[in-house]
Amino acid sequence: MDDSDQKIPVSIAFVGGGSLNWATGLMADLAHDRQLAAEVRLYDIDHAAACRNAEIGSRHAAASRGRAATYTACESLAEALEGADVVVISILPGSFEDMAQDIAIPAAFGIPQAVGDTVGPGGFVRALRAIPMLAEIARAIRAHAPNAFVCNLTNPMSVLTGTLHAVFPDIRAWGECHEVTKIRRQVAHIANTQAGAERYGHRDVEVNVLGINHFTFVNRILLDGRDMMPTYEEFVRAHMQSGWAQTEPGKDADYATYFGTRNLVAFDLFRRFGIPAAAGDRHLAEFLPVAEYLHDPEQWGFTLTPVDYRVRDRAQKQQRAEALRAGDIAPEAVRSDEALIEQIVALLGGEMHIGNVNLPNRGQMTDLPEGTIVETNAVFSRRGVEPICAGRLSQALAARVRDHAARQDALLRAVLECDHAALFPLFREDPLVAPLPDSAAREMFAQMLAATAHVLPDELKGAA
């Protein structure tokens, strides 16, 4: 029996299959993988983009290391989902032009945002656009692939993963985010520096994760069975003032300009709360009042990523995708930093996998309410995705995390129940919005809703 005959068959429905990021990353990972025999169905409201990606996928498959994955562009969501083993959701709620308004309108009211897709006024309005979309997808999964494992990659991660579970309580869904990779890379760097050689990568570092998406912390760090927490604490103390520059491998200087950080926010949170912060500074800063970090991003070593950069980056990726489709350049089967392949293999009976994911709280975080979406480690195996008890945060930090988690839960309920009256008070309570005079907060909310009204369902258009 040859290697290809031993592969695990899997049908993957990719919702948002025209993606220029996650979809093409999955293609490269499948081409690199030796364990799965994948049939990938790509669905996107932009069908031409899904067709383009199907051609790119076929080119990746031709260069694969084992049995090639197959790619099909589907014209309907139902067609893509029917009988799927795994569903991957990676959509853009609205457009970059909508996201530009999520950033620009609050900025005019004195609220800077580095990302604007999770919390703060930008994250709130993005959620208003996205929750109805994820609700529709959840209903379609219930109808066409009720037993599928479902991976959500779309932000705001906590609210949208919660939407899937609220609409289809029996769904086998988790939210996947790579932010925690940042601290794992830091620890690998520290260990390699000590060893004087490149011995470790982020996959070698084990961390125990606590928190909610993009506001995550770790209270245990292991490498080769060695407790790395004292070493990491020493590293933070040594770089508390100067910071430590971090960019993602393989990214160009332009990317580093807009997405690189010096980890000064994370290091300062460690000083304040005594626990390492796991997410990147650009996300962490948005969970806290403007006066703490966002008032002076240059001082804190990060940038407010402009949406026009994202638009330029998208255009470049579209050009590269077209060149891949046409065969002008060859696909590279370079393994990404993502763990989705390992997760799928484990769920279908392969080697067990442990990693951080977003799931409803079933006791894995004892200081947050049951049912709220939390980010902790979980075990992936044939039994499904089972959260691991993560423990507790300090009282002061838990209060901040709980505040955001409660607001995310209430926002989800308000949208699903069309409770318009609840929306502005929740918007008003966010730490970035709270310092504004009430009249200014109301005007900002009204302007943001008006700017995104063309994307909102009819039942939400009167929320202002």
UniProtKB/TrEMBL annotation:
Keywords: Carbohydrate metabolism, Cobalt, Glycosidase, Hydrolase, Iron, Manganese, Metal-binding, NAD, Nickel. Coiled coil: none annotated. Binds 1 NAD(+) per subunit. The keyword Transmembrane helix does not apply. Mn(2+) binds at C177, H214. It comes from the Bacteria. InterPro entries: GH4_Enzyme_sf, Glyco_hydro_4, Glyco_hydro_4_C, Lactate_DH/Glyco_Ohase_4_C, NAD(P)-bd_dom_sf. Belongs to the glycosyl hydrolase 4 family. This is Alpha-galactosidase. The lineage of its organism: Bacteria, Pseudomonadati, Pseudomonadota, Alphaproteobacteria, Rhodobacterales.
